[in-house]
Amino acid sequence: MSCYLLLLLVMLYLTVISDCKLVKFLQSKKNCRRGAFFQHFGEAVQECNGMCDNCVSSIELKDIDATYHTKIIVSLLQEMQQNDQRATLLQLVDKFKTKWKHSGCSNEAVDLKKEEIEQLIVQLILDRVLKEEFQHTAYTTNAYVVLGPLWKPALQGNRPVKLTSAIHSQDSGDRFKSAKRNQMSNLEAKLDDLRRTISSRNGGVFPHAVLSTEQISLLNCHTPTTIAELEKLIGKVKTDKYGSDIIEVMRSETGSGKDSGDGAKRQKKDKGVVFVESSEEEG
């Protein structure tokens, strides 16, 4: 999937889902982004192959009991409401940190990071424990966090709250990449390295926009060693842009000369060629 098609899908997705679903989609740390598209449009879920941030990310997740933290947030807003005061999300985070510091909290309660507090407040808004109120002026619009319809059960501790937090682990990321590489042939691994090199060389181009996973599989299967053969597999646009680099890798792996090759073998391969049109050619 090219970056242009992915952007189109995102724009289409944003026009048809509710704000609540959109925020949950963005907040998720463990669900596949690409799978969410397929599920929303009633399509069969396909393998992501590391195309979304959640699938490629090297994170471990843990659940934090945030029931006590929620009680503090709700009590702060209740007190402010009684004093006819309001707070934005960032102001509420600062007030929570001050309250937490001077409250002598139990050792069993986890000390949340700033981004985790922000995440918790957003989660409470989605769960209707809190809500947003907007104040419009001639120059700006301010969003304030206030008590929602379900604040009382949360204040009484009758509504358990779990916060999913991410633990970034370089080791887990290395294991993920290693497992993925072990499933590739030598040629596929070299082509994967090549598309990442081209991506870094051409800022703003995603690796899968250079060569998709399906195209790498085709190249591994048919091993083209000429520009003409390559164009049949990945299209003219990508061949013009990246063909010389790809052919160099193909020839180094197959041991073919510039114009050499077994004609009978090439003819046999051509019979099984599957044409893959680059999405870039459609624009």
Task: Describe this entry's structure for a reader.
Residues 251-283 are annotated as: Disordered. InterPro entries: HRDC_dom, HRDC_dom_sf, RecQ_Zn-bd, RQC_domain, WH-like_DNA-bd_sf. Keywords: Signal. This is HRDC domain-containing protein. GO terms for molecular function: 3'-5' DNA helicase activity; nucleic acid binding. There is one protein chain. The chain has helices at residues 3-16, 19-27, 33-40, 53-56, 67-82, 89-101, 114-126, 151-155, 170-182, 186-201, 207-210, 213-222, 227-234, 236-254, 263-271, and strands at residues 59-65, 130-136, 141-147, 162-168. By secondary structure, it is mostly helical. It has 3 domains: 16-58, no CATH class; 60-102 and 111-168, Arc Repressor Mutant, subunit A (Orthogonal Bundle); 186-254, DNA polymerase, domain 1, CATH 1.10.150.80. The strands form 2 sheets. The protein has a two-stranded antiparallel sheet with strand order 1-4. Strands 2-3 form a two-stranded antiparallel sheet. A hairpin with a 4-residue loop joins strand 2 (130-136) and strand 3 (141-147). It is elongated and about 75 Å long. The two termini are 14 Å apart. Mean pLDDT is 75; it is low at 13-18, 169-173 and 257-283.
Assign the CATH topology of the largest domain.
Arc Repressor Mutant, subunit A
The biggest sheet, with number of strands, parallel, antiparallel or mixed sense and barrel status, is: 2 strands, antiparallel
Tally the beta strands.
Answer: 4
Inertia-based shape: elongated
Task: Assess the beta-strand content as a share of residues.
Answer: 5-15%
Rg estimate, integer Å: 26 Å
Order of helices and strands: HHHHEHHHEEHEHHHHHHH
Low-confidence stretches: 13-18, 169-173, 257-283
Tell me the span between the first and last alpha carbons: 14 Å
Q: What is the overall pLDDT average?
A: 75
What is the CATH homology-level superfamily of the largest domain? Winged helix-like DNA-binding domain superfamily/Winged helix DNA-binding domain
Second CATH tier, the architecture of the largest domain:
Orthogonal Bundle
CATH class wording of the largest domain: Mainly Alpha
Number of helices: 15
Provide the domain count: 3
Helix content: 55-70%
Order of strands in the sheet with most strands: 1-4
